[in-house]
Amino acid sequence: MLTHLDAQGRANMVDVTDKAVTSREALAESLVRMRPQTFELIQSGGHPKGDVLAVARIAGIQAAKKTADLIPLCHPLMLTSVKVELLLEAPDAVRIQARCKLAGQTGVEMEALTAASVAALTLYDMCKAVDKGMVIEATRLLNKSGGKSGDYKAAVAP
């Protein structure tokens, strides 16, 4: 049984030594809502801080690679692929989707969720001077494949 608790009930990292190496993939998303004027600045490329989408994309990729440093008891992983897409949804939202892959003994759900979350936070940081009222919402795992627990697919998007 996999648990974060040892025999004395103390938190510890799950031992995955005996788990098989399999291909694993996870897709997570986060949604950032903003004023239509902020959306227009981002879409037009006219934001005073430049290409905020590119900065958020890079931040998400870097965050995925540092997940074990951010989330207690997470395994450090050798990711083979991280993709972060920022999809403009007029008139007032940016949907961030982060996909992580590896061949390993544990899944990449936390890496995908971390990438989507940090990309959303970076977008907020880059745009807060023009829109402090932005809302980050609907951060969730969309799907995952591989590993002993099998595949997962989320219900229809909110």
Blueprint of the fold:
Elements: E1 22-33, H1 36-44, H2 52-65, H3 67-70, E2 81-89, E3 93-104, H4 109-127, E4 135-145, E5 152-153
Antiparallel strand pairs: 1-3, 1-4, 2-3, 4-5
Helix pairs in contact: 2-4
Active site: 125
Pathway: Cofactor biosynthesis; molybdopterin biosynthesis
Pfam family, one: MoaC
Strand content: 25-35%
- Number of E-type strands: 5
Q: What is the CATH homologous superfamily assignment of the domain at 37-144? A: Molybdopterin cofactor biosynthesis C (MoaC) domain
Q: Please estimate the helix content.
A: 25-40%
Give the SSE order as H and E letters. Answer: EHHHEEHEE
CATH topology of the domain at 37-144: Alpha-Beta Plaits
Q: What would the average pLDDT be, to the nearest integer?
A: 92
| Total count of helical runs of at least 4 residues | 4
CATH class of the domain at 37-144: Alpha Beta
Instruction: Based on Cα principal axes, name the global outline.
Output: elongated
Span between termini:
33 Å
The major β-sheet equals:
5 strands, antiparallel
Low-pLDDT residue intervals, each spanning 5 or more residues: none
Integer-rounded radius of gyration? 17 Å
Overall structural class, as computed from helix and strand content, comes to alpha+beta
Protein name: Cyclic pyranopterin monophosphate synthase
Function: Catalyzes the conversion of (8S)-3',8-cyclo-7,8-dihydroguanosine 5'-triphosphate to cyclic pyranopterin monophosphate (cPMP).
Keywords: Lyase, Molybdenum cofactor biosynthesis
GO molecular function: cyclic pyranopterin monophosphate synthase activity
